[in-house]
Specification:
This protein is mainly alpha-helical. It is built from four helices and no strands. The radius of gyration is 21 Å and the shape is rod-shaped. The chain starts with a helix and ends in a 5-residue tail after the last helix. The relative contact order is 0.10.
Length: 78
């Protein structure tokens, strides 16, 4: 793209910058969401809740399945 193209696209620069920042935020959020260590901590906490009687077996199983699905899927690849 030449100089003229860059000049024409200059007004859109804040939008392009905002889009880039949003992509970075989403990528970091996904990295943290699918992080195996974070999922393991949540599984441990879930087990503690079950042992303390704060949740029942059904709730434990449902939430455990969700956490294990996160481990299997991992972050989406773009």
């Amino acid at each position: 793209m030449g100089l003229l193209g860059e000049l024409l696209l200059l007004p859109a620069a804040p939008l392009r910058g905002t889009a880039w920042v949003l992509r970075q935020v989403v990528a970091e959020a996904e990295r943290q969401y699918y992080d195996p260590a974070a999922v393991q901590r949540e599984l441990s906490r879930l087990n503690e809740l079950l042992e303390a009687g704060e949740i029942d077996e059904e709730e434990f199983d449902r939430r455990e399945d969700e956490l294990l699905d996160r481990l299997e899927k991992g972050p989406r690849q773009t």
